[in-house]
Structure formats: C-alpha cells, structure tokens
Amino acid sequence: MRIDIISVLPELMESPFRASILKRAMDKGLAEVHFHQLRDYGLGKYRQIDDEPYGGGAGMVMMIEPLDKCISELKAQRDYDEVIYLTPDGETLNQKIANTLSIKNNLIFLCGHYKGIDQRVRELHITKEISIGDYVLTGGELAACVLADSVIRLLPGVLNDEQSALTDSFQDNLLSPPIYTRPDEYKGLKVPEILLSGNQKKIEDWRHDEAVRITKEKRPDILE
Ligand code: 6GU
C-alpha cells in the first residue's frame, strides 16, 4: 500500500512512522508513506495557499489551485483508489472503514487546515471525508496519522500472530475481554480460576461472555 499525505505541516507526522510496528511495516516494504508540502504548490513569491472566504466571515480557506496542482500531479503518476479529506465534518472513523481501506493500493490523504478547503476541491478530487471523532483538532495531521495507523496495522504481514488484528476490540462488534499475566495473585488480587484451568473451550466461552458483559456495560451502542 502507498499513502500520499498532503499537508502544510508534514513535520508533525514524521515520528509515528519511524517507530515500532509502523516502522517495521515501512522497512518490510508493506507500506509506503510519502509526505507532500502543500506550500511547494503555493501561489506567488509567498507561496500562498489560503485566502479570505468569498462573502466574508472569520477564518481562511485553503485555495483550490495549490491543492489541484498537488493532487493532479500525484494522479498523473498512478491511479488512486480514494482521495480522502481529513475533516471534522467527515464520516466518523471506525473499524469497518479501516478494514475497507486496508484492501486498497493507493490512497491520498489531504489534511485540512483553517476553516477548510474551497468547495470545488471536493467536487474535483475528494472521494471520501473522514473525521476521527466529535471534537476539533488544530488540523487534519494527527487525524491522518490515526487513520494511517488503523489501516497499515491491518496489512498482511504487519502484525505477527501474537498481535493478530482478528482478536481486536471492535473487529466483531465486541470490546476485548479482561486479560491477565503473571503473577496469578498480586496484593490479594487473583486471576480468574478458569484462565488457569487449561480447559480451552471453557476459557473461550468465558472470554466471549466477558466481552459481551463489558460491551453491554461500556458500549451498548456497538452491540448488534
Ligand atoms: Cl480529521 N480534523 C480536524 N481538524 N479535527 C478533527 C478531525 C479532523 N477529526 C476529529 N477532529
């Protein structure tokens, strides 16, 4: 998978891809992330990328020309499956969206800033709009990292068996059951007997029941 990220602040996104699981995915060639500085496509001597909104009002608008130049240049090099605009008014990211995107080859992420983008960029290029939750960030960059992480970890070969994504919370509309490791007792707190029993069938049943109980308690909204 290749992800091209367009932003006025690419520096903000470099470290997440330089550590741990995402780094290994890059090193193994399973994912490539390329950053594009929107200002390189800006207009005039000051490389302008934003301007005041027609009709007045507070805040600046990301101009169409720099965005169109940048996206068109990328599209001329390869076919993209989606051009995703990261914006608080997008569809809220969930595991299903991450799963769907993880089977694509080439994605563009556009990080929003200021009041947003000229509406015509949407008409020309944007195929999907994604938000990471109902709160406002200073820009789409951190959201782009969250989206990229949620997708890249699903690519075949990125996680090993112990980290398997199949048992993740949300993957089957259930939160994860409680987990424990050594010691079996700490300050009087004991690991549930059943997990020490060696009876795999009973353990799996217990885990499923606990997952249902915890989901009902914390997130009844995700239960089917
Ligand atoms: Cl994608 N962008 C910004 N600026 N704020 C957000 C967001 C995105 N998702 C949640 N809040």
From TrEMBL:
S-adenosyl-L-methionine binds at residues 112, 132-137. One of its GO terms (molecular function) is tRNA (guanine(37)-N1)-methyltransferase activity. Its EC number is 2.1.1.228. It comes from the Bacteria. Residues 1-223 form the tRNA methyltransferase TRMD/TRM10-type domain. It is found in: Cytoplasm. InterPro entries: Alpha/beta_knot_MTases, tRNA_m1G_MeTrfase_C_sf, tRNA_m1G_MeTrfase_TrmD, tRNA_m1G_MTases_N, tRNA_MeTrfase_TRMD/TRM10. It catalyses: guanosine(37) in tRNA + S-adenosyl-L-methionine = N(1)-methylguanosine(37) in tRNA + S-adenosyl-L-homocysteine + H(+). Specifically methylates guanosine-37 in various tRNAs. Belongs to the RNA methyltransferase TrmD family. This is tRNA (guanine-N(1)-)-methyltransferase. It comes from Chryseobacterium suipulveris.
